[in-house]
Amino acid sequence: METRAGGPGAFAGFDLGRTPSPCFVVDEVAVRRNLAILKDVKDRSGAQVLLALKAFSMWSLAGVVGEYLDGTCASGLWEARLAREHYRGELTTYSPAYRREDLPEILKLSDAVIFNSPDQIARFADLIAAARADGEVFDIGLRLNPECSQGEVAKYDPCQAGSRLGFPVSQLRPEHLVGVDGLHIHALCEQDFEPLRRIWDAVEPRLAGLTAGLKWLNLGGGHHITRADYQREELIALLRQIAERHGLQVLIEPGEAIALDAGILVGEILDTFDNGMPVAVMDISATCHMPDVIEAPYRPALLGEVEGGVTVRIGGPSCLAGDVIGDYRFAARPEAGARIAFLDQAHYSMVKTNTFNGVPLPSIALWNSDTDALRIVRRFDYTDFRDRLS
Ligand SMILES: Cc1ncc(COP(=O)(O)O)c(C=O)c1O
After folding, report:
1. Element housing 265 (H / E)
2. CB-facing half-sphere around the CA of 359: CA atoms within 13 A
3. What is the CA(17)–ligand 1 centre distance, in A?
4. Which of 231, 250, 252, 381 has its CA 20 to 30 A from that of 313?
């Protein structure tokens, strides 16, 4: 995949020596810029906008998120707890499958609980009734698979053949919607407006006569709304049109769009040598700190990369031969001790870190590019590695 990073922005002027290494540095001003765009979409479309915590759960910014958005969406019990502990507003929880023991708390915490199939809703009818009898108030949703592939990469396409994500819309019958308050459709990944329109054009006729008893329609995430070239006016028009035509509250739950181009991962070169080409080992690991580099795969943009110069293969400190971040061009070969940074690392990288090989977790810093104030909000140490093992 190609990185969709829009450029360094204010990070072009950030002194990489100011943080511990490695360290995620998130610019609050850039996050607010994204949130303001999403609030404008919400205000002008009437749709509710929730932050998908799976993409960006830097809860030290929860108060900031709450100034702009309607709430959050969670992928299960732990994100739902995090949402209620730190964030405000609406909370929607969706998981492809729930564990019976988790569901009572999820029903208590969430304003809407979205199930992956009518069978699951039926199987948990006793827990749903018991929670309501206890006074809990929540909506029930059903995730649909629109069976309309728009993804470039199967791995990120919930409509791929044999997908486990959502109930195939071709199987939907009126009896599946008894007791259901809303529908959920998530089928995009880092996409523009047109794929969303194509999905809606494919799904809308199939929902004919089925939406009368519903309250809401959640159009999921994967909308790259805060990217400079995203077609926001068209999105606003479609969201309004759906709400008006079907009498539904429309929601979207972007994740990446909230933190797009809002953070970097700073690290240090630990050693360099030649092996047919210049090679550098650094304290940032692809497998531990930016696993999507290997999983997607993609090549993250390097802050200040030059044209020409010398090409250096950069990799991490783990034992994995494939722990390679990529080949990058430098004006001169970097020395051990040099600081470098990869762009657009606030979303997904931070939530996916791990300590394979005992590699330390990056610290987390909050920067304000307007005032230049820098706060290290979290440092990790040996105990974080030890205490997740036994
Ligand atoms: C159900 C659901 N909602 C929202 C999102 C957030 O997507 P993104 O971060 O691409 O906007 C995802 C991402 O996988 C998802 O699976």
Report:
1. strand 263-274
2. 24
3. 34
4. 381
Centre of ligand 1 from the C-alpha of residue 42, in Å = 18
pLDDT digits (tens, 9 = 90+) for 196-252: 999 999 999 999 999 999 999 999 999 999 999 999 999 999 999 999 999 999 999
Spatial CA neighbour of 187 closest among 204, 179, 175, 199: 199
The radius of gyration computed from the CA coordinates of the chain, to the nearest angstrom, equals 22
Over the stretch 33-88, which tens digit does the pLDDT of each residue have?
999 999 999 999 999 999 999 999 999 999 999 999 999 999 999 999 999 999 99
Q: How far is the CA of 244 from the centre of ligand 1 (A)?
A: 25
The atom of ligand 1 lying closest to the CA of 56 is 9
What pTM did the predictor assign? 0.97
Question: Token match 């939406």: residue?
Answer: 211
Atom of ligand 1 minimally distant from the CA of 94 = 1
Ligand 1 nearest atom to the CA of residue 223, by list position = 11
Closest to 328 measured CA to CA, from 303, 348, 345, 346: 303
Ligand 1 environment, Cβ below 6 A: 52, 54-55, 94, 186, 189, 220-222, 253-257
